Amino acid sequence: MLENISATRMEQLQLRRRVELASRGHKLLSQKRDEISRQLVKIAGELKPLRQQVEKELLETTRRFMMARATMEPEDMAAAIDMPTKQFALTIQFASIMSVKVPDLTKDISGEIMCYGFSTTSGELDVALRALERAFDSLIELAEKEKQAMLLATELQSTRRRVNVLEHVVIPDIQETIKYITDKMSEAERDNTSRLMKIADIIRG
Amino acid sequence: MGIALLGAALAAFMAGIGSAVGIGIAGRSATGVLSEKPERYGQLFLQVVLPGTQGFYGFVIAFLAMGKIYSFTTLDISNALAIFASCLPVAFAGMLSAIHQGKTCAAGILMTAKRPEMAVKAGVLYAAMVEVYAVLGFLISLLIQMKIEAA
Amino acid sequence: MATVQQAVIDFHRYPPIGTDDWRYGFATGKIRCLETTMLSRATLLDLANAESFSAAMDLLSSTEYSAGGAVESFAQIEELLLQRRHELRTLFIALMQDPELVELLRARHDFANMRLAIRRVVTDRPIGLDYSDFGSVPAEEFEEAFEQENYSRFPMYLQEAIEEAVLAYYENKDIRSVDYAIDRCEAKYRIRTSEELGSVFLLSFYRVRIDLTNIRTLLRLKAAERDERDLFLPGGFVEIERLVHGLDLGYEGLAPLFFATPYYEVVEGGVAYFTTEQSFLRLERLCEEYLFGFLRTTRSITAGPQPIIAYLLLKENEIRMVRMLLSAKNNGMDAKLILDRLGE
After folding, report:
1. Residue of C110, C125, C177, C179 to mutate for A, most A C-beta atoms under 10 A
2. Are A157 and A165 in contact (CB under 8 A)?
3. C30: pLDDT strictly greater than 60
4. Do B32 and C20 touch (CB under 8 A)?
5. Hey, which end of chain A has fewer CB within 10 Å, N or C?
6. Do A126 and C278 touch (CB under 8 A)?
7. Residue A124 is nearest to which of C175, C281, C321, comparing CB atoms?
């Protein structure tokens, strides 16, 4: 970098502006980094209990299904859940956290989940389906949160890299160049001064 | 004469019907059990044939009555009626007890299917208790006949 | 629409089962023997407490549920159980001497098939599979019949059920109405037919079934906080007014409501478990125990269709239990929940 620098005042001024810009960018980016990691910690904190809850609910649901099957003939079971009455629609919107586009899921559930009559079905099936219904709510929330966390984590990584590059490479580099130019210029100054002094001596002498 | 013969016939066929029905009932239950557990044959045999005894009692009484009837040179009406009456106990007691004994045996056979160790204790013994009343009928028939003397 | 008279409860624990029918001597003898090969309660408990799936299979190795070698997938077990069920039903048909009684019992499967078929037809979906093969009308005939809207090949009771179910669906476009309508038709048909056939046992049996279904419906409606009042089936021993009244009571008021009925213990135990565990496991179990207790009273019958019907139902339940236990073991479910379902 230092080789093809023209050590002029013009260049120095330009570099000074660049270093100023870079350090301002550095400051902003590190603020962004802090904010993203704060958000991420928050989401991750919510994520863990949510995930455990969903896992528990799904496990519970499968258990109930198994128990429900015990009192029902296989054909009855197939018939009971063959015709769902529950309508399920999912819309994705994008929200922005720290200029990161994260998905925001809105679900639209309508209808009753119990889609069968009473005489050939087991009460345990009701419980299982209702547990599944609840698990679905949390499941969607979990999916949304996990995707957000993932996107934020990628963003955090690139921001951190940018901050590091600015801090450890760009800014020191430019500052070094500025220093080099300053040195070069003062060298030239001194060179000039001494030459002038020499000329003055010759003239006087 | 005719009425005395009617008595003998009654004793034979009523007790016979009873035994046939009784064995039929017990036999059907027994074949049901044997279709699954052929090794129980010995235990079940006694319970199947038990209702058959009434038929024999009826047969014996009918035979004795016939002997009596033909031993008289002249059979007056009172003796004929007496022979007729002597046949009734074994006819009725035999028939009804055989049917019920058949049912008891059937129940005993079903129990033997589940608890073979009780086969003789309960199955045969309970059926034998029904038998007692057939024997009583048989005895009375016999005693009445022995008292009938030529007038 | 003739409603069936509600019978009075004039028995102490279980309703009457009728008397002997000596034509069934052979069949009853055979059944009594087969009963001895049924899995004992101890075996079922051992299965529930078995350490692993393979240990459970070892326990079954000397029974008719033995897979006879290594089990590669659970589907193999399912297949085996279905086969056992098929054998059982074939035996049942062979032993029964009254085709009317067999038809009445098989009607359950006809109604179940019809329920599924109508649901598929009204929602414009293919008739498809999943039908029971034990009905009197083979499922293959459904497609053609519905296509041509010609139901005359079905027995009268099914024609009525189809009519009512389709009508009920188009009234409010709710798929569940189909089920409700068929359930009601089924209950009426059962009571009517068993009265016509003069079968004391089946009449009692179906009344008990209707009562137990109604009690379960009552609790399930309460749990789902639904307020339909016309879903109870007619024909049981318990009056519908009593059940409807139950909807307005709190959970603690339910057991006293059934105090004068034989179902007091069923309701009491079931409700108590439900309020603490939010689960119908015990209610289902108690209902089942009551029903099977009733079926076991047929032991006093020396010859008759009753023990054979009871054996069919008890054995079907045994097959379901084995399926439940094995799939629970296969999925590593903990023993406590299984025992809750199985009973102590």
Report:
1. C179
2. no
3. yes
4. no
5. C
6. no
7. C281
Dihedral (C-alpha) B34, B37, B41, B47: value to the nearest 10 degrees? -60
Q: Does B36 touch chain C (CB under 8 A)?
A: yes
Residue B6 belongs to what domain range?
2-147
DSSP structural state of residue C233: P
**What CATH number should be reported for the domain holding residue B87?**
1.20.120.610
Q: Determine whether the interchain pair C213/A82 forms a contact, defined as Cβ–Cβ distance below 8 Å.
A: no
CB C180 within 8 A of CB C188: no
End-to-end CA distance of chain B: 14
pTM score, whole prediction? 0.81
Task: Sort out which chain C residues have CB atoms less than 8 A from A120's CB and list them.
Answer: 112, 115, 183
Report in angstroms the alpha-carbon separations of A85 from A67, A117, C220.
Answer: 23, 12, 18
* H/E segment holding residue A86: none
Nearest to A66 among C178, C182, C331 (CB): C331
Show Cβ contacts of residue B32 under 8 Å, excluding neighbours closer than 6 positions: C25, C26, C27, C28, C29, C30, C31, C32, C33
Q: Is the CB of residue C71 less than 8 Å away from at least one CB of chain B?
A: no
Higher pLDDT, B140 or A4: B140
Contacts of C302 in chain B (CB under 8 A): 29, 103, 106-107, 110
Closest by CA to B82, choosing from B132, B140, B134, is B140
Residue C308 · residue C28 · CB < 8 Å:
yes
Write the pLDDT tens digit of every residue in B9-68.
Answer: 999 999 999 999 999 999 999 998 998 888 888 888 888 888 999 999 999 999 998 888
Asked if ipTM goes beyond 0.90, one says no
Domain ranges of chain A: 2-196
If you classify domain A2-196 with CATH, what class do you get?
A: mainly alpha
Contacting chains of B (3 CB pairs or more, <8 Å) are C
In this model, does residue B1 exceed pLDDT 80? no
Q: Which residues of C touch B30 (CB under 8 A)?
A: 29
Determine contact, residues A69/C281, Cβ cutoff 8 Å: no
pLDDT tens digits, one per residue of A143-177: 888 888 888 889 889 988 989 988 888 888 888 88
Distance CA C185, CA A200 (A): 127
* pLDDT-based confidence at residue C8 (cuts at 50, 70, 90): low
User: Tens digits of per-residue pLDDT, A77-98?
Assistant: 877 777 777 777 778 888 777 7
Q: Which subunits have 3 or more CB–CB pairs within 8 Å of chain A?
A: C
pLDDT in tens, A102-143: 777 777 777 777 778 787 888 888 888 888 888 888 888 888
DSSP class of residue C222 equals H
Asked if residues C210 and C235 have their Cβ atoms less than 8 Å apart, the reply is: yes
| Per-residue confidence (pLDDT) for residue C344, from 0 to 100 | 58
d(CA B97, CA B130): 6
Crossing angle (nearest 10°) for helices A9-71 and A171-204: 180
Q: How many domains does chain B have?
A: 1
